[in-house]
Amino acid sequence: MAKKPLRFGIIGLGLMGREFGSAAARWCHFLNLDFEPVITGICDTNVALHDWFTDNFDTIKIKTTHYHELLASSDVDVIYCAVPHHLHAQMYIDILNAGKHLLGEKPFGIDLAANEQILAAIAQHPDLVVACSSEFPFFPAAQRIIAAINEGRFGTIIEASCGLLHSSDLDPTKKINWKRMIEFNGEYGCLGDLGMHALHVPLRSGWMPTRVMASLQNIVRERPNDKGEIVPCETWDNATLICEVDNEHGQFPLTIQTYRIAPSETNTWYLRVLGTKFSIEYSSKYPKTLRFMEYKPGGEQAWQTVDLGYKSAYSTITGGIFEFGFSDGLLQMWAAFCDELANGRAGMQQPFYCATPAETHQQHRILTAALASHQQKTMISL
Ligand SMILES: NC(=O)c1ccc[n+]([C@@H]2O[C@H](COP(=O)([O-])OP(=O)(O)OC[C@H]3O[C@@H](n4cnc5c(N)ncnc54)[C@H](O)[C@@H]3O)[C@@H](O)[C@H]2O)c1
User: Fold this and answer.
1) Is residue 329 part of a domain?
2) Which of 130, 182, 315, 371 has its CB surrounded by the most CB atoms within 10 Å?
């Protein structure tokens, strides 16, 4: 099948830039897609990172340390931008003004004001496809939870909880990097890094909280820098948000945890929804395992456990009996973004599209309220 090439430039060739490179290189994994990303341009101020791309991709026509050169290139139609948060607003706006489509990284602006500047630029360019990276909803179990929400199976929702948990910051000897500096990462700290992952499915489900109460912790307050000097580490390590979501039955609590210090957890994403008729839960800690419970009045209350195989939104060569993991989630997310780019949202092969700019704005409103709640020791209305 002839595939429509989508000519990508990447700005930021670090952890996530390379993950996208790897996803693009693995496009043959898909069955039945009539489009494919082709990496034609790369940009990073750190030239040492260029080599991995040029060694592995013979489609690159432009490599640069100045992103404006990438934006000026007629060989690039769409940009994946994965840079520190303080650069999001300026770069995303410049990308849009250059007429390039954009998959940006979360939190989509270092703070609410930056996010609103980006949204204003998007409004000026309604012809461009713009989305925010968020891969966990593409896990098979997450897709099953989303289907249950869409089918309204829960009866009255009793509570929902979601989060993303890391543990590597438990090590006080871990060196400080930009993600642990307010100047580059923002006042949100762990909330800006992890919040969109937790919030994507609740927001897509229409569960925008009306009230937010937050407890934030800075647990490791000093870290060594590259020179071995001990310097202040001022970002929030852990955040717990108790939110209230209003719905047709009244309201239910939505609890969100974004932890960089959750002992033993390595990128654990979870979502649990309890209802009077149906409950369901998934944690990527047990990547195959989905648990759910049907309840009929007077009946037994018994959880069922099912090991899900590789049942992805976009079909692939992998047999259904095998497991699904982080890089598979990213690959599926990239397929959804490229599908929207190639065919428009209405023409997508499957209905779940990437996180939208409007959802990033909702995220920022929640995170900003969380900062205010913690500071004022009160619940904030949205
Ligand atoms: N979706 C996810 O699961 C996920 C995971 C981690 C990070 N992220 C997000 O991805 C983004 C990048 O994070 P990362 O972990 O890849 O960081 P990183 O530090 O590994 O990479 C960022 C890159 O940006 C480059 N850079 C800095 N200034 C630049 C400039 N002016 N021009 C060009 N390049 C420049 C740096 O040299 C670096 O290579 C952040 O927004 C982060 O929140 C997303």
Assistant:
1) no
2) 130
Query: What is the per-residue pLDDT for 2?
Result: 85
Query: Structural domain tally of the chain?
Result: 2
Averaged pLDDT for residues 92-99: 98
Say if residue 14 is in the same domain as residue 75: yes
Does 1 score more than 80 pLDDT? no
Instruction: Give residue ranges with CB within 6 A of ligand 1.
Output: 11-17, 43-46, 49, 67, 82-85, 87, 105-106, 133, 135, 193
Looking at the fold, whether 237 and 147 belong to one and the same domain comes out as: yes
Of 108, 132, 156, which marks where a domain is finished?
132
Of 132, 147, 176, the domain-final residue: 132
**How far out from the chain centre does Cα 197 lie?**
4
The model's pTM: 0.97
Please choose from 64, 102, 103, 105 the residue to mutate so as to test ligand 1's pocket, defined by most ligand atoms within 8 A of CB.
Answer: 105
Task: Assess whether 25 and 72 both reside in one domain.
Answer: yes
Contacts of 82 (CB under 8 A, 6+ apart): 10, 11, 12, 14, 15, 16, 17, 20, 105, 133
